[in-house]
């Protein structure tokens, strides 16, 4: 119901004030922030720090901030502004980039004593209306990590025959092995049929979306962190030359929040990228030489089968590494095209860049944390050059509330969010708009109380009328009975 104090906003209204307010929904004040995190080592003499600049190999790089300690305290301060923007209606993305074993997963997930970005966000937003999804990109395939029976392709499964059989009693027959293998294969195919495939779709209204992705409502921090940790146990990990437990996939956490203004949803993506690594050919050659030296009886067949499986596992690792490097190269190529103002941006060449399209030259806010280890100078230089290139991207964040808020709400929102610095707004006008908003609320409360009072009066009138009718009926009955007696 409209009131004399309600300002009607028409779609065709092109007043100068409303035009400015709609334009101000787009933030142009540092929509992209780049940070560098240095893994603590004994190689601190290889570089020089000066405020937020670093000199390395006769090159100088400048970032918003450089972290050199293991403590997560500065990370918490870094993510607070972008989280506030997300809760206020802006889609955002945080991702870590760097060589394997440089601290990306530590920054994102952390430990029980030093929580990372995700546990901190879940803790801070415990009282917000939120939901969560977790997925990974493994070998250019999307896998929902909130689904319990996520399975892999049979050709990459190493659980059929592993090293443990060598220490067991080899008293079973060859057909037993085939039976177990067939059971495992059927189990894999059955798991695939139970899970709907994840597909990436782009729409004008919602931007980039992942179809068939499981989404869980968050109730408490304890429950949220339990779900997240359980999802991480399903993530692909393996031992590499530089890391005993290396992430072999890109992991993406998506958190949806109900905005503090209006009735819309905004989201923040936290991406833990897999680290690039060289493909090891020596292990493959060694496995090939070993697998050709065993033939004959059942024991030799078992050993030969084991080495065949080992060779297949090494090929699987090389495939993983190749796909990781390919997606990271595509990411660099997309950023390079964006900085050169190229007409065609190859977002769809990789599922990673397609998912991050809104954050790379799009309408979302972006925060990138590059992790480096100065024991590996070439990779460190590549990472810092990559971060330096991202700074040249131009993002134009747009609130999901655009077109959903009145002019007064927009001005108040910008004032509370500190976004009104681009154009000074009269303090008297701010106070008046705030008073007007409170007055509307007061009028609505009065209207509700008036309605309750009217209902109470009507109820009493009905009760009084009922009482009068009952008294009239009683008198009429007495008169009728009196006449009959006469």
From TrEMBL:
Single Gene Ontology MF annotation: microtubule motor activity
InterPro entries to which the protein is assigned, alphabetical: Kinesin-like_fam, Kinesin_motor_CS, Kinesin_motor_dom, Kinesin_motor_dom_sf, P-loop_NTPase
Source domain of life: Eukaryota
This protein's UniProt keywords: ATP-binding, Microtubule, Motor protein, Nucleotide-binding
PROSITE patterns for this protein: KINESIN_MOTOR_1, KINESIN_MOTOR_2
Family indicated by similarity: Belongs to the TRAFAC class myosin-kinesin ATPase superfamily. Kinesin family.
UniProt protein name: Kinesin-like protein
Gene source species: Pseudoloma neurophilia
